[in-house]
Write a structure and sequence with these properties.
two-stranded antiparallel sheet, 70 residues, 5-stranded antiparallel sheet, 21% helix, alpha+beta
Length: 70
């Protein structure tokens, strides 16, 4: 049995990260610490006055329902 590490990251993004109906990973901000990602998402939502999403990404797979900061 293979031994692999589970990689958990946090992606923070707005609707501006969507290109041709698909979210572009290069237009997202990536974090390894949840609290830092959450603070960044909150500040982005307030400063830019846009809905900002925070998704948990495990081994490249995004969570089904991101947290939304308004």
């Amino acid at each position: 049995m293979e031994n692999f590490e589970m990689k958990k990251e946090y992606a923070v993004y707005t609707s501006q990260a969507m290109v041709n109906g698909i979210y572009d990973n290069d237009l997202m901000d990536w974090f390894e610490d949840y609290e830092i990602a959450k603070d960044f998402a909150f500040k982005t939502a307030k400063e830019k006055n846009v809905d900002t999403m925070l998704s948990v990404v495990v081994n490249g797979v995004f969570s089904d329902e991101p947290e939304i900061f308004e």
